[in-house]
Structures are given as C-alpha cells and as structure tokens.
Amino acid sequence: MKYLRWTGLALSLVGIGFVVSQFAAYADSLGDFRPGIIELLLLAVLTAAYGASNVALAAAWRDLLEYCGSTSDARWAIRVFGVTQLAKYIPGNFFHLASRQTIGMLDGHGAGALLKSAVWEFTAIVTSAVVFAVWLTPLLLHGISNTYASVLFVVALLTISVSAHRYFSPLVMRAMHWYIGFLLLSGLLFYATLQLLTPDTSLLHALPGICGAYIIAWLAGAITPGAPAGIGIREVVMFALLQSVVGQSELLIAIVLSRAITAGGDTLYYFYALAMSETAKPR
C-alpha cells in the first residue's frame, strides 16, 4: 500500500508538471485572460455553490454510517465532514478519512461502523461516478447521439437505484442519490466555468460529454492513492478527454479555475463547519 501511495503521489506531480508545461506552451494566449468584476463575481458564486454541495457528501456519509449500524445527528455529520475535509489535500489522500474515524470514535461511534462506512462511501461514489461515463460516448465514439447516451444514462441510474434499494437498503440508495446529485452539480459547475471563458452556444450540444468528462476525471483523481485531492491526475484526464472539443488555451484556464473553485469551495465549507455549534448530538 505504501508503494501505491508513493506511485500516486509521483503521478500527481507528473500531472502538475504536464499542466505547467502546457501553460508555458500557450503563454501568449493565456495572457489574454483578464477577468472583470462580473466574471469574478460569477466565479465566487460557483465557488460558493461547490462549497454548499459538500453538504450532500456529508448527508450520504450519515446515511451510510446509519446503514453500518451507527446513527448520528445530521448537524454532527455535516460539521465533522466539513472540519476534516481539507485533510484530503495532504499527500496520501487518506488523512481526511483518518481524521473522521478519530473524531467519530471520540464522539461515541464504533470503530467498525466508521470503517465500514468509509468503504461503503468509496464504493458508492465510485459506482455513481462510473455511470456518468455513458455521457462520454458521444465525444469518444462517432455516430452516438447525446439523446441515446442520455437514455442509457437514465437507465443506468434507475438500475443502480433499484439494485441498491432491493439488495442493500433504502439508506444506500439515498446515499447514492446524494452522490449523483453532487457529481452532477460538479460537472455543471465545470461547464459553467467553460462557458464563462467561451460564451458560445455551440458548446451546449456537448454539455453531457463535458459533464461526463469532468466526473470521470474527478473519479480518476479520487481513486489514485497518494494523490492529494486528485491534484494533477484530474487535470491531465480532463485535458486528454476535452482537448478536441474545446480550444486548448480556454480548456487550460478552465481546468485551473475549476481547481480553484473546488479548493475554494472546500475551504468555505470547512469554515462553515468550524463555525457550527459543537452541541450537535454525535449519536
């Protein structure tokens, strides 16, 4: 496992180097980006929206924790999830889970239930994210329409929802719905960032594919051991999937702005959680 973490960290650094090298190659074009007040305000709104979407992740974790045999107050779950969230930016990509495990045990939750909820969290969010790969097919394969891909997407969502309810629990199904909502909003926020840079209605037809590409890139970063918050991995995958769809200079700016939005949103959620009263019942 130690070697996997070091490999993931190395890949993350290589990814960062790749993005920096691309920035150097497109330095002249990138220098033209001068956001005005309106653009900065819109970026702030996108950051706040991403920060608020973290509540969905906390709600999903609470449902999975209950499924694993340990109930908690909603405010407690939101606070604990928030105050541990920034630890994912520490190289290793597991310190947020370790922090959550520690706080949960101190607040009276069983170590086994917390550990199982973390495994379920990883499994459920990965399964939810994989479904969005269907939206990528119009971008990667010629002759596949957005309509056909969207129908397959809905069928896949219904399938995993019914399966989660039937074979596991309504709590697992609800957690997956929270994850799907979070991922969908994340993809839409990236699309909005692109539109901010290239206000062109021609991108609208690629909306499903762009959202799908972002979510698959997010997944690649999330499952890479050692890559802090998927830094470097997510950016390389997004660039590889979308460079033929969007102008490369605009895509690079959007990728960097997207990372700033997610990091800023995580920070906003952290301070919100920090400001929450600690009187919320842990159980």
Task: Summarize the structure in words.
The chain has twelve helices and no strands. By secondary structure, the chain is mainly α. The chain has one domain. It is globular. The two termini are 33 Å apart.
Order of helices and strands: HHHHHHHHHHHH
Binned, the helix content reads over 70%
Biggest β-sheet strands, sense, barrel: none
> What is the straight-line distance between the termini?
33 Å
Tell me what portion of residues adopts beta-strand conformation. under 5%
Number of helices: 12
> What general form does the structure show?
globular
Strand segment count? 0
Specify the structural class. Answer: mainly alpha
Integer-rounded radius of gyration:
19 Å
Topology:
Blueprint: H1 2-25, H2 27-30, H3 37-67, H4 74-85, H5 95-106, H6 111-131, H7 137-140, H8 146-167, H9 170-197, H10 207-222, H11 233-242, H12 248-275
Short description:
The chain has twelve helices and no strands.
Name some characteristics of this structure.
disordered N terminus, single chain, mainly alpha, 283 residues
